[in-house]
């Protein structure tokens, strides 16, 4: 079981970029990512929808590269790399709480999706009726156990899942083109009329949280270059590929319900099973990051990471089983809008104001950095209430600009605590 939570990952435990890229690919290959491609294509011609999806994932990639390099520099998770931008106490109580609630909530959402899909599989193909709540409970426990064991369990799971998912997608593309032809795909007319900003926003929103918490995985990277390559190879190709697959399946089925689309291609049973596997690879990261946030929030030692991950996943599973997520998802969506501005403040603090200098970062960590908290709050509000452009990016840019504007005239250089003292405390 992984023994590191807030502690710096020692050099001997660091991994190659492709190991981290594999987990990133597993985290993005999911039912929800396929549905994003399908939703975009419902409002745009196929080619334009694919371009919009690619632009969205490019934006997310830029965001996660900067966040990921911080993880590689310090070897600690997001809740600790946020200490300079928000202060040691601000990061511990405000940022950790936001990340914990969001990750736990989305673990529950994905568990509910997985449970419903599995129940549908069993009924459609075997005639066995399994209550959705029971399916959600079973799969919640399975996904949770993987997350509890930590990084290595995530790594081994993706060794199995990624090839299977890639094969499914390739087979799906071949069957779509064979059965429906390239000409009919080209002549497809969308049901809606989405603007470019709205379509790109759908793509960005699908993984904006993942980009913000990149350090949770890239803390295992040996160098900044490895953090960059892990995102470049693990996220962008997989994300764009899923937009293509989701779009093609939606064109064929007339709906972004991926299970129905696969059934129309004769891939219902096998395809649905692999889609459950895709949810598994994604949801383990939710529980894993939620556990890290809880460790920091409650000031626990690293050996409690497994227990906190267990608690995070258990709460999410219970939410899914009792159906509370039906009333919680809107709140969760609003809360999630507050996460991208976190990265805006962190990027402004480390990469702009401190020029990416590790020593400057380590030697200037106050207990509470009001500049960061104010900038985050403003970015959060703009992400929710400004309806022009892409909400997640509006929040990131607003928080970044305001942080820089406040930093130079008001920042106090009193000082402080190194990252090692924060971790020990």
UniProtKB/TrEMBL annotation:
UniProt-listed CDD domains: SLC-NCS1sbd_CobB-like (cd11484)
Q: Which UniProt keywords apply?
A: Membrane, Transmembrane, Transmembrane helix
Q: Which Pfam families match?
A: Transp_cyt_pur (PF02133)
What's an example GO cellular component term for this entry?
Answer: plasma membrane
GO molecular function annotation: cytosine transmembrane transporter activity
Q: How is it placed in the membrane, per its record?
A: Multi-pass membrane protein
Q: Which residues cross the membrane?
A: 21-40, 46-66, 93-118, 130-149, 156-176, 196-215, 227-252, 258-280, 307-325, 331-352, 368-386, 392-411
Task: Spell out the InterPro entries in the cross-references.
Answer: CodB (IPR030191), Pur-cyt_permease (IPR001248)
Q: Its domain of life?
A: Bacteria
Gene3D superfamilies on file? Hydantoin permease
Q: What is its main location?
A: membrane
Q: Where in the cell is it found?
A: Membrane
Give the family from UniProt. Belongs to the purine-cytosine permease (2.A.39) family.
Q: Which PANTHER family match?
A: CYTOSINE PERMEASE (PTHR30569:SF0), CYTOSINE TRANSPORTER CODB (PTHR30569)
Protein name in the entry: Purine-cytosine permease
Q: Which gene encodes it?
A: codB
